[in-house]
Amino acid sequence: MTSPPWEPPVAGTEVEHLLAALDRQRATFRWKADGLDAAGLSLRIGASTLTLAGLLNHLALVEDHQSTVRLDGSPLSPPWDAVDFDTDPEWEMRTALEMDPADLYARYDAAVETARRRFAAAIADGGLDRPTCTWPDGRTPSVRRILFDLLEEYGRHTGQADLLREAVDGRVGEDPPPDWRP
User: Fold this and answer.
1) What is the C-alpha separation between 83 and 155, in angstroms, rounded?
2) Beta partners for 131?
3) Is 55 within a domain?
4) How many folded domains does the chain comprise?
5) Which CATH number is 63's domain given?
6) What are 16-60's pLDDT values in tens digits?
C-alpha cells in the first residue's frame, strides 16, 4: 500500500518529519476547504466573521510572508505587495469574499508551491539551523523556527476550517481520503 503524499515518514530525518508534518496540515486544510462554491466558502458560523474563503486567502498570504519577508527579507509577492495592511488589516479576509472560488484556490495552491520551493532552497543552503532575517528586537531565528511558526499557524486555522466545513455540508475527518488531490 502506498501512503498518501501528506503522510509523514514512519522514520525519517528531522527535516523530513518537519516538512511532512507541515504538508499534512496543508493537505488537511486544503481538503477541508476543497470543492466549494462561493456560498460554501463564504459561510459564517454565529457571530464570527471567519470564512473558509478568508482562511484560504489568509494562509496564501502567510505562506508568502513566511517564505519571503521572514525567511530572507525579500518583499511580499503580488498581490500582497500592493496592500496597505496598516490601513486595511483584514484585507485578505475581506477581499476573499469577492474572489471567484477557482482563483482563490489557485492563489492558495500557488503560494504553497512557491513557499515549498523557497524553504527547500533555504534548507539546501544551510539546513534548519540556517539564520533567517533578523527581527526588530535583534534576534535572528533559524529556518526551523520559521517552519514551526508556519506549522503552528496551520494547526490553528485547520481546526477553524474543520468547524466551518462541517457547518457547510457535514464533511468531517482528520485527514483527506488517501486518493484525494486538490
Assistant:
1) 26
2) 142
3) yes
4) 1
5) 1.20.120.450
6) 999 999 999 999 999 999 999 999 999 999 999 999 999 999 999
